[in-house]
Amino acid sequence: APLPPPTWTTPFEAVNKNIICPQMENLFMANPNSTESEDCLIANIYVPDTKTNKLPVLVYVHGGAYQIGYGEFAVAKNLMREKEMIIINFNYRLGPHGFLCLGTPDVPGNAGMKDQVALLRWVKKNIASFGGNPDDVTIIGYS
């Protein structure tokens, strides 16, 4: 399972880092501005410019057969124009970093799936701070 996020005492600049999880090369989802890093568990939270609270939340899980992809590949700005909602996309560990299972305590398997569960728990606990409703979260995705 991923470690809990660090606690900051000063503002953390988290804009436009282009960090993605290590993965095999793929021309379909290539991003020449991206940087692969094992420190890649990043969520992008898009909040509309509104005073409304308790907004519905849409969490997008990127596709790629658990081998390729990254959260920022699909940004649902057009959907936000149609309906006031918070949209979240995120990275999770892929390939052997995310889904290798040796059945040992060091490599029990499904780290990528555990990353997704950790993100959803984080959303439930923290999304109200962004104006979202923790009881109105929809998960979408494809592969």
Automatic annotation (TrEMBL):
<dbReference type="Pfam" id="PF00135">
    <property type="entry name" value="COesterase"/>
</dbReference>
<keyword id="KW-0378">Hydrolase</keyword>
<comment type="similarity">
    <text>Belongs to the type-B carboxylesterase/lipase family.</text>
</comment>
<dbReference type="GO" id="GO:0052689">
    <property type="term" value="F:carboxylic ester hydrolase activity"/>
</dbReference>
<dbReference type="InterPro" id="IPR029058">
    <property type="entry name" value="AB_hydrolase_fold"/>
</dbReference>
<keyword id="KW-0325">Glycoprotein</keyword>
<keyword id="KW-0719">Serine esterase</keyword>
<feature type="domain" description="Carboxylesterase type B">
    <location>
        <begin position="1"/>
        <end position="143"/>
    </location>
</feature>
<dbReference type="InterPro" id="IPR002018">
    <property type="entry name" value="CarbesteraseB"/>
</dbReference>
<protein>
    <submittedName>
        <fullName>Cholinesterase-like</fullName>
    </submittedName>
</protein>
